[in-house]
Design brief:
This is RNA-directed DNA polymerase. Helices cover 40% and strands 24% of the residues. It is of the alpha+beta class. The chain has 2 domains: 119 residues, Nucleotidyltransferase, domain 5 (2-Layer Sandwich); 44 residues, Integrase, C-terminal domain superfamily, retroviral (SH3 type barrels, Roll), CATH 2.30.30. A hairpin with a 5-residue loop joins strand 2 and strand 3.
Length: 209
């Protein structure tokens, strides 16, 4: 992304990413106990930020690395606050998918409640229409949506699809609604049975008199 955004050569973009100490270290074998690695893709990511003065206002380059595959995503931002971290992560999610865990330092941006909430918040569930079978599949996690397209985390990747092929997964809500309606019916029937029993009891008392 940096290469396209700032018209850099591949070598220049690689040098910028390698200037990030933590992320560069993941490119070589590490002694046990220094930096944990994932055992599969999307298991553990590591994120850090470096500064590139010649980028001007966008001098804060955030870099995320998949510790298993060493795949990297770098994006330039105007700062290193929580909102910049979140914007970077969402770009990476849209390209690679959603990781199981993210490793960061204890910087204020990463430790902030806002960044933590974004990392752990549940993703909206959606269903996707298969353009070949014409069947709706899912549910899957919705990563991003805008300009007529949606990015969805599926079992095979994170494709961008036309919004018309994506719809909310309403089955949990419908099930909850059905459960609530069923509970209301049970309460009503129980109330009717109780009233009927009370009526029979009153009749029995009258007959005894």
């Amino acid at each position: 992304m940096l290469q396209k955004q700032f018209q850099l050569t591949a070598t220049e973009a690689r040098e910028i990413v390698e200037s990030c100490d933590d992320c560069h270290a993941l490119g070589a074998p590490l002694p046990a106990g220094v930096n944990p690695r994932g055992l599969k893709a999307l298991e553990l990511w590591q994120t850090d930020v470096t500064q590139v003065a010649k980028f001007g206002r966008l001098k804060y380059v955030h870099v995320t690395v998949d510790t298993f595959s060493s795949a990297m995503w770098a994006s330039a931002h105007t700062g290193e606050k929580a909102r910049d971290v979140i914007a970077h992560w969402r770009q990476a999610f849209a390209v690679f998918g959603i990781p199981s865990a993210l490793k960061t330092d204890n910087g204020p941006a990463y430790a902030s409640q806002k960044a933590s909430d974004d990392r752990h918040q549940p993703r909206a569930k959606v269903r996707v229409r298969n353009l070949v079978t014409k069947q709706w599949e899912g549910p899957y996690d919705l990563i991003a949506m805008g300009r007529g397209y949606a990015c969805v985390s599926t079992d095979t990747g994170t494709p961008w699809l036309p919004s018309k092929c994506v719809c909310p997964d309403l089955r949990p809500q419908r099930q909850n609604s059905a459960d609530r309606q069923g509970g209301s019916r049970d309460q009503l029937e129980g109330h009717q049975v109780a009233e009927s029993s009370s009526d029979h009891s009153d009749d029995s008392s009258t007959d005894s008199d």
